[in-house]
Amino acid sequence: MCYFKYFIRFLILSILLFFAVSISSCRSHKDASNNELNTSAPKSKKVKEKYATLLNVEENRIENVKLYSFIDEWYGVPYKYGGKNKSGIDCSNFTSTLYSNTYGKSISGSSSSIFEQCKVISKSNLEEGDLVFFKIDGDKISHIGVYLQNNKFVHATTKKGVMINDLDELYYKKYFYKAGRIK
């Protein structure tokens, strides 16, 4: 009888200990998942700060965090003609990938065929997400970028890969053709 009493106590204490451990592990798991969810807030703050500085605008003007986070992930990816991934990408595929991931719109083809999918707008009416086209190789459209803000645009360059430039830089001013907005 004495052993039975100890066995029952041991069993009850074991069950209580099991529940105590289970409850505490659930609590720490919940706290960990809350921390994981909150990591996006500091990341978006960093993205806003970084691109406000790069574009020379106030931080509150960086509203489309999805766009700038996408650019941040691709910034510096090398240029590769016909490339479609982070090992190398060309200007039209970068623009198509950005549009698909950021705006949920499907555009594809060469720079000149994407131009055909646009409504031409004046340079002075450019808005974030509009497209800028260049004629670098003679009479045909041969380069494309995505307008951001403050005269800046993102594109995949042959020499430095994905980067941001200013439309007023001499090179881009010389070869700028037209701006467009996807229809």
Please state the CA-atom Rg, rounded to the nearest Å. 27 Å
Order of helices and strands: HHHEEHHEEEEEHE
Distance separating the two termini: 86 Å
- Would you tell me which CATH topology of the domain at 67-182 applies? endopeptidase fold (from Nostoc punctiforme)
The unreliable regions are: 23-39
**Structural class category:** alpha+beta
Determine and state the CATH class of the domain at 67-182.
Alpha Beta
What percent strand?
15-25%
Taking the sheet with the most strands, its summary is: 6 strands, antiparallel
* Number of helices in the DSSP assignment: 6
List keywords for this structure.
183 residues; alpha+beta; endopeptidase fold (from Nostoc punctiforme); 6-stranded antiparallel beta sheet; two-stranded antiparallel ribbon
Describe this structure in words.
The chain has helices at 2-38, 40-55, 65-74, 91-103, 111-115, 170-175; strands spanning 84-85, 88-89, 118-121, 131-134, 143-147, 152-157, 161-166, 176-182. By secondary structure, it is an alpha+beta fold. The strands form 2 sheets. It has a 6-stranded antiparallel β-sheet with strand order 3-8-4-5-6-7. Strands 1-2 form a two-stranded antiparallel ribbon. Helix 2 (40-55) crosses helix 3 (65-74). It has a domain at 67-182: endopeptidase fold (from Nostoc punctiforme), CATH 3.90.1720.10. The radius of gyration is 27 Å and the shape is elongated. The protein contains 6 helices and 8 strands; from the N terminus they run H-H-H-E-E-H-H-E-E-E-E-E-H-E.
